[in-house]
Write a structure and sequence with these properties.
Length: 178
């Protein structure tokens, strides 16, 4: 009985730690890129009645300032990463067409590490500076991660889909400034 109890406890701890069912469960996210805010009623009321409606200023569109393609590390990973400046001056990291494995504790990291192919890239992202943008919302699809105000984008050169539980990169992208 004691052996059975130890095996069951070990099995329970192993399942909780590795969460193997996530290998078979996909979480798809389809977020739109944040758009420019619509003009408010107070802004519209300040326009003179004689001015034509087309004279209202057109809000600026979001602008991509850096981008890169995800490469595989621990798990097959693909998709595009974009750093987008929104019309209000804030920045968002956008993952488009992401396709990777699900994992127990995946994060999105903005890092200063170089992106290396294969096993050489597994252990470089936690050696330098990184900024965790939060938990990965889903292992497939399009998703946005707001950057904290005041983030110095010149300090970061890559993005990693990072498994915090096992300290390994699922995939990464080198950011190229546009």
């Amino acid at each position: 009985m004691a052996v059975v109890a130890v095996v069951l406890v070990g099995l329970g701890v192993g399942l909780a730690w590795f969460q193997p069912w996530k290998l078979f469960v996909d979480e798809t996210v389809r977020e739109a890129l944040p758009a420019a805010p619509a003009p408010t009623a107070s802004a519209a009321s300040t326009q003179s009645p004689a001015a034509p409606a087309s004279a209202a200023p057109t809000p600026a569109a979001p602008r991509t300032v850096a981008s890169g393609e995800l490469i595989s590390h621990e798990h097959a990973t693909s998709g595009t990463v974009k750093l987008v400046r929104l019309p209000d001056g804030t920045h968002t990291l956008r993952l488009e067409n992401l396709d990777t494995s699900n994992g127990p504790d995946l994060r999105v990291w903005l890092t200063d590490a170089p992106v290396k192919q294969g096993e050489a890239g597994w252990h470089v992202f936690d050696d330098g500076r990184y900024l965790s943008l939060g938990k990965l919302k889903g292992n497939k699809g399009d998703q946005n991660y707001a950057l904290p105000e005041g983030t110095d984008l010149t300090k970061y050169t890559s993005v990693s889909i990072w498994c915090d539980r096992f300290d390994v990169s699922f995939g990464a992208a080198e950011l190229t400034r546009i």
